[in-house]
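Chapter review: from sequence to fold.
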Amino acid sequence: MQPLEGITVVDATQALVGPLATQTLGDLGAEGINIEHTANGDRTRDYTPRYNGLSAYFVSLNRNKRSLTLDLTSEDGQDILHDLLEEADVFMQNFSPGDAEKFAADYDTVAELNDEIVYCDVSGYGEDSPYSGQKAFDIVLQGRSGIMSVTGTEDQPARVGISVADISGAMTSLYAILTAIYHRERTGEGEHIELAMLDSSFQFLFYHVTNFLASGENPQRMGTRHPNLMPYQAFETADGFLVVGVISEGHWEPFCRAIDREEWLDREEYATFTDRVSNRADLDAKLDELFAERSTDEWMECLNAEGVPSTPLNTVEDIVNDPHIEQNDMLAEMEHPDLGTFRSPNNPVKFENLETDTSQAPPRLGEHTEEVLSELGYNDEEIDRFVSDGVV
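The token string follows.
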């Protein structure tokens, strides 16, 4: 049994934040209907590289959905959307400011059609923000949220290598939608969720904010290092990189044994995290020189023998081929009847009594348009007219 079986999600989002959230709802059993623009669909459909004819980026975010093209600027397109929403459980949109009203898809209009719907409106800043009229994408939000200020080196800020602002918005909207569905099951009440991605990104600063509030000192970029812990970073070895995380005082002694520097245990300047952070420059220089003397595999053997939290620094190719990924079935395989087999990262949740399903391949643009319209009760003549008029 899938936990969201019987739930219908109408998805009028594109790019990453919405598609990731609705894909996850689909993994949990919800029926997803993706509303796409008639001309080009989701903007990520144009991204390269291509994967069996589709954008590889699009493939990673759009399994378990059917694609319906609609011109939401047309009266017929809005009527079709309303027909869908009258029976839907969830509607998610990330329209540009003002477009929800233009498309007759704002919350007040939709709630009149279906007062039990869970309506999730995701935007960069939200309606009441001083920035509400401005465009916001992942890199902009990484910059504005402060995330980029603590990412990179002293000399150069860096974008986080994954779209963390989008992902934070997706995960936050996902738990908000699930909470609202649970509330509706108990009370029969629908819900209007407004999520500003600047807010969901800001929350991820966690200890950087509390460190600042406690000390008054602005957090700085530290590369792979941590402001409160030491050593907790990547080191270059003779043939690559490894990562070490001495996350508790109890790890310091086995770390010193692993690197054959037990005499450091008696040095007051290295005794605690506070001491080691205060003397970071000295200790960093010693560790950089030491780790460069031997290969990653040699160091990993020493560190593992002492139980020190550590890992080689994997590339994407490394992790895709890692035995853990195979053992935990972390690459979903999806078969499209026309385009062939796709693989993408699987849903990581393993239930004891419930099931997830990640087998439905991402759709071609408008692949299910006639199918969905027929289910809504439109006949062949009406569908043909929609096609000829450019409504679908």
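Two observations follow directly from the output. The longest strand covers residues 31-36. The domain at 8-203+323-388 is CATH 3.40.50.10540 (Rossmann fold).
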